[in-house]
Amino acid sequence: MRLSRYFMPILKENPKEAEIVSHRLMLRAGMIRQQSQGIYSWLPLGKRVLDKVNAIIRDEQNRAGAIELSMPTLQSAELWQESGRYDAYGKEMLRIKDRQDRPMLYGPTNEEMVTDIFRSSVKSYKDLPLNLYHIQLKFRDEIRPRFGTMRSREFMMKDAYSFDLTREAAEHSYNKMFAAYLRTFDRLGLRAIPMRADTGPIGGKLSHEFIILADTGESEVFCHKDFVDFDIPDDRTDFDSVEGLKSIFDKWTSLYAATSEMHDEAAFNAVPEGDRLSARGIEVGHIFYFGTKYSEPMGAKVQGPDGKEHFVHMGSYGIGPTRLVPAIIEASHDDNGIIWPASVAPFDVVVINMKAGDQACDDTCELIYAALTKAGKDVLYDDTDDRAGTKFATADLIGVPVQIIAGPRAVANGEVEVKDRKTGVRETMTIEAAINRFVA
Ligand code: ATP
Ligand code: MG
């Protein structure tokens, strides 16, 4: 991508409305724009990051055996009347009428709709287990939307829903998502700790919130500090192994970890004082097992091996991609801007032409740009005629992991500078060596 032809509206001044660093940096880097309160456009740079986050989420959901579909944002009120949640949900639900005066709503979550899909076509235990997910916009008319896309009214959610014949089978489905979540957040460069959680309006029996520790987090959390160094399930994890997944779950729930709603002061005080961590956190994921809470009122049942009908045991599993992007920034930035983990960086590398219009600089940059693009890298080429200082500031602000800097003096020697955004270390090397670093 040539910056001269891209759309990346950088702000020079700090936006006054931004209270936390991630919101400030997302606005300054031209990643998002607020359209009305708590409702955002994702501008091209932001969209790239969001897509990368979603690709990792999708990859890990698929690995764990979940199947992707797509459900609509608008739902009929009827389904919610069946479950009893139409009245219970309250003011967070955006209620709409169509031209026939039929009550509709903008989905805040999808338990009812997915249960309807399930009951219309699954009749036998032989079709279980089943886990269906989508990545879709949701709307909740939050009383206090704030911190940019961290807490917005319209937001994206990956929501998965599992269906099983028995409680035991449902617990295995829960453990699959539990392990998938650990892997997902790790690949996003984050350390998320599963904490016992309140089941809230979704209702349920077993529930964990995945929390990232951050000073700007809205939740108050308490946990054992060893969680910070626990091993993440690797890519040989067998998601069909009931025992294997149970042992991951047992290990990751063996020490104290709870959000303030579930906090047990006495149990926490039993943790040796030096191991206690009480901090603030950002909820990036939430998983529930809720048994037959929706399958019973909505009549979602299958024939079991005993020939009888059984209401299915369900769970639901949410991750917030549009919250994760600012959460990653909260965890990874410095005074100059964002520092993206390579896995979600909008571009793998930025090529900075320090003197656009200078033949040698232009030729060198074009050569590098073409070679890296051909190698399948996402390359941003700053070919604008801005001052070098402005270009460096922009490159640092948008947080691309590696910068290749081509200035007249180095280029005359057949060299460029390669800068690591995170460490700030700059190395001078031949043009060929700079290319090979990515192509090899
Ligand atoms: P919170 O306690 O932060 O209001 P919640 O418990 O209501 O969230 P869930 O129903 O568990 O949220 O939704 C699953 C995930 O969706 C959350 O873990 C979070 O990542 C994301 N999410 C929920 N509400 C919002 C929001 N208003 N803005 C952005 N992301 C959200
Ligand atoms: Mg929650």
From TrEMBL:
InterPro entries, A to Z: aa-tRNA-synt_IIb, aa-tRNA-synth_II, aa-tRNA-synth_II/BPL/LPL, Anticodon-bd, Anticodon-bd_dom_sf, Pro-tRNA-ligase_IIa, Pro-tRNA-synth_IIa_bac-type, Pro-tRNA_synthetase
TM region(s), chain numbering: none
Catalytic activities: tRNA(Pro) + L-proline + ATP = L-prolyl-tRNA(Pro) + AMP + diphosphate
One GO CC term on file: cytosol
Any one GO BP annotation for this protein: prolyl-tRNA aminoacylation
Protein keywords: Aminoacyl-tRNA synthetase, ATP-binding, Cytoplasm, Ligase, Nucleotide-binding, Protein biosynthesis
Key word Oxidoreductase present: no
Subcellular location: Cytoplasm
Enzyme class: ligase
UniProt-listed PROSITE patterns: AA_TRNA_LIGASE_II
UniProt cross-references to Pfam families, sorted A to Z: HGTP_anticodon, tRNA-synt_2b
UniProt EC number: 6.1.1.15
Ranges of residues in domain Aminoacyl-transfer RNA synthetases class-II family profile: 37-341
Subunit composition and interactions: Homodimer.
Functional description taken from the UniProt entry: Catalyzes the attachment of proline to tRNA(Pro) in a two-step reaction: proline is first activated by ATP to form Pro-AMP and then transferred to the acceptor end of tRNA(Pro).
Family recorded in the similarity comment: Belongs to the class-II aminoacyl-tRNA synthetase family. ProS type 2 subfamily.
Protein name as catalogued: Proline--tRNA ligase
Species, as recorded: Rhizobium phaseoli
Organismal lineage: Bacteria, Pseudomonadati, Pseudomonadota, Alphaproteobacteria, Hyphomicrobiales
